[in-house]
Amino acid sequence: MSALAPALAVDESADIAQGDHRSLQVVLATPPSALLDQARQRAVAEGLKYAGGLHPTEAWVLFQAGAAVLVDVRTAEERKFVGRVPDSKHVAWMTGTAMIRNPRFLRDLEKVVTKDTVILLLCRSGKRSAAAAEAASAAGFGNVFNVLEGFEGDIDNQQQRGDNGGWRLRGLPWIQD
């Protein structure tokens, strides 16, 4: 993890600038079980139909600690041309340019994780992964969490992504093919 320290130090200022309630150092000092409990409490408060939502830094800490599997639900094209998290799994929630729901999503998900695995779903902005989390939870996956803000964050006033939250803006590790 020491090789990632410079990138993560940038992340802390990005979190604070974007209004997250806790700095990276606080998240790093929080045990994985407590992060999951907090996300579950948020889910209850928000009436979510899945285990909960995690901020990108929280998801990174869980993934890096081996406490969860990160599954990217974006299309293969998004991963290739926009970037991806190293060592994440890929199961597309939607496919093709028409963005049609992948009818094999649940079967494909079962190929990469078990139903009792702690699963972190990541998409572009956190919306598709929330829908995928609901579907997975309804199918019996008991520990499915949505990565809030997604990989790129929400669209800003100029109708662009990348400056309004997201994994990349937080300075978390990612690569591009």
Overview of the molecule:
This is Rhodanese-like domain-containing protein. Pfam families: Rhodanese. Residues 64-163 form the Rhodanese domain. The protein has one domain (2-147): Rhodanese-like domain (Oxidized Rhodanese, domain 1, 3-Layer(aba) Sandwich). It contains seven helices and seven strands; from the N terminus they run αααβαβαβββαβαβ. It has helices spanning 5-17, 24-28, 32-46, 56-64, 76-82, 105-112, 127-138; strands at 52-54, 69-72, 89-90, 94-95, 100-101, 119-122, 144-147. The strands form two sheets. It has a five-stranded parallel sheet. Strands 4-5 form a two-stranded antiparallel sheet. Strand 2 (69-72), helix 5 and strand 3 form a beta-alpha-beta unit. The longest helix is centred in the N-terminal third of the chain and has 15 residues, at 32-46. It starts with a helix and ends in a 30-residue tail after the last strand.
Which key features would you list for this structure?
single chain, 177 residues, alpha/beta, Oxidized Rhodanese, domain 1, 5-stranded parallel β-sheet, 7 helices, 7 strands, 39% helix
Care to give the gist of this entry?
InterPro entries: Rhodanese-like_dom, Rhodanese-like_dom_sf, Thiosulfate_ST/Rhodanese-like. This protein has helices at residues 5-17, 24-28, 32-46, 56-64, 76-82, 105-112, 127-138; strands at residues 52-54, 69-72, 89-90, 94-95, 100-101, 119-122, 144-147. Helices cover 39% and strands 12% of the residues.
